[in-house]
């Protein structure tokens, strides 16, 4: 009897659709505006040569520098392989497969559902309101048995911040029952909106961060979970023995130096300026039906014929992110903010398309 390997796999994995990352979706382009990356590499030097030794589980310098940057204590910080690992660690530490559930509010980041499915945890969704804010009464109706609520603010892919008064209400609703996890992957583009100062008042609040976006280190895969010490202590029980490779910790520490943070803030100012320019220009393109305000390094726009726009730009080497399959986002494409030249290429292509369609 021949062995069918698929039959050995867990059923939920056999039927799982993996997260469709920008690199998995592919494309042959030279203007990559589909993954919310910083468009240019940042300088660094590898100074650690002791690759024959295992790294620290939690590199001391990285933890100390991130804690200082975030205005917290080292005991409030956990480093991981991107914020994606933080998302999953929380489920592994707090959710019993087949018993507990998580909850999130689409349209939002796709890894919450993929991680839950992979582990075998039920996920519940409460669609955001038309203005992409929280539907608090509907969330309240679905909280029974929920251990973690994931909230992305600013939200990916819509680019908006979640109303802080609504977050406080949700924290009150989940107190003593569930964790509220605020995914702040894009917070450097609106730092005044961070919830880190709330941690002292809410023992069940958790904040996720990353070096992938504003710090221009998507290829490093380094993220952080910020929480009160009891949460961090539990996560340390389930994290891999050596989550950060020695070169990763080396570069991360440099990025979090005084000079590294200054450079990041300069880059944020450039991208915010490019974003304002791009939004103004998009609004003048005939093929653009609607643009949405953004507090991030990307913008969302609704097009009169998004499949044609997507393919036309794709064929010209300009790779955008199609959002049509997300609830409430029909006709929408997400455009990462690139260099000014890259933004200009997008607008030139859209203007040419508008002329053709006229």
What key phrases describe this protein's structure?
358 residues; alpha/beta; seven-stranded mixed sheet; four-stranded antiparallel sheet; 13 helices; 13 strands; 16% strand; globular
> Sheet bearing the most strands, described?
7 strands, mixed
| Sequence of strands across the biggest β-sheet | 2-8-7-6-5-3-4
Shape: globular
Q: Mind telling me the C-alpha Rg?
A: 21 Å
Helix count, DSSP H or I runs of 4 or more residues:
13
Low-confidence stretches: none
Q: Could you give the order of the helices and strands? A: HHHEHEHEHEHEHEEEHHHEEHEEEH
Oligomeric organization of the protein chains: single chain
Cα-to-Cα separation, first versus last residue: 64 Å
**Helicity, in percent?**
25-40%
Structural class: alpha/beta
Number of strands: 13
Which percent range describes the beta-strand content?
Answer: 15-25%
Mean pLDDT: 94
Record the SSE blueprint.
Elements: H1 5-8, H2 11-14, H3 22-25, E1 31-32, H4 60-70, E2 77-80, H5 82-94, E3 101-104, H6 111-119, E4 122-125, H7 136-141, E5 146-152, H8 164-174, E6 179-183, E7 205-210, E8 223-227, H9 229-238, H10 246-255, H11 258-282, E9 288-291, E10 298-303, H12 306-315, E11 318-319, E12 321-322, E13 332-336, H13 340-357
Parallel strand pairs: 1-11, 3-4, 3-5, 5-6, 6-7
Antiparallel strand pairs: 2-8, 7-8, 9-10, 10-13, 12-13
């Amino acid at each position: 009897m021949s062995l069918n390997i698929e039959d050995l796999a867990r059923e939920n994995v056999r039927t799982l659709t993996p997260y469709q990352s920008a690199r998995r979706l592919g494309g042959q382009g030279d203007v990559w505006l589909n993954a919310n990356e910083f468009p240019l590499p940042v300088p660094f030097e590898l100074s650690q040569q002791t690759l024959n030794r295992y790294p620290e589980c939690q590199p001391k310098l990285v933890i100390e520098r991130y804690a200082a940057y975030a205005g917290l204590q080292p005991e409030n910080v956990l480093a991981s392989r991107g914020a994606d690992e933080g998302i999953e660690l929380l489920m592994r530490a707090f959710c019993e497969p087949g018993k507990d559930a998580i909850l999130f509010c689409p349209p939002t980041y796709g890894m919450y559902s993929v991680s839950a499915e992979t582990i075998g945890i039920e996920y519940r969704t409460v669609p955001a309101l038309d203005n992409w804010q929280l539907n608090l009464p509907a969330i309240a109706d679905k909280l029974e048995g929920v251990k973690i609520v994931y909230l992305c603010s600013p939200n990916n892919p819509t680019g908006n911040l979640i109303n802080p008064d609504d977050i406080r209400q949700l924290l009150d609703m989940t107190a003593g029952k569930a964790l509220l996890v605020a995914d702040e992957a894009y917070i450097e583009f609106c730092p005044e909106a961070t919830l880190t100062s709330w941690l002292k008042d809410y023992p069940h609040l958790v904040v996720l961060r990353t070096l992938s976006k504003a710090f221009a280190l998507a290829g490093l895969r380094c993220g952080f979970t910020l929480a009160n010490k009891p949460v961090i202590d539990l996560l340390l029980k389930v994290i891999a023995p050596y989550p950060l490779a020695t070169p990763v910790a080396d570069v991360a520490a440099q990025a979090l130096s005084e000079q590294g943070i200054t450079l990041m803030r300069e880059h944020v100012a450039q991208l915010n300026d490019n974003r304002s320019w791009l939004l103004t220009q998009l609004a003048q393109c005939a093929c653009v039906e609607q643009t949405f305000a953004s507090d991030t390094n990307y913008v969302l726009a609704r097009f009169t014929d998004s499949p044609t726009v997507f393919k036309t730009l794709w064929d010209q080497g300009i790779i955008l992110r199609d959002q049509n399959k997300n609830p409430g986002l029909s006709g929408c494409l997400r455009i990462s903010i690139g260099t000014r030249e890259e933004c200009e290429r997008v607008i030139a292509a859209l203007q040419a398309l508008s002329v053709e369609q006229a």
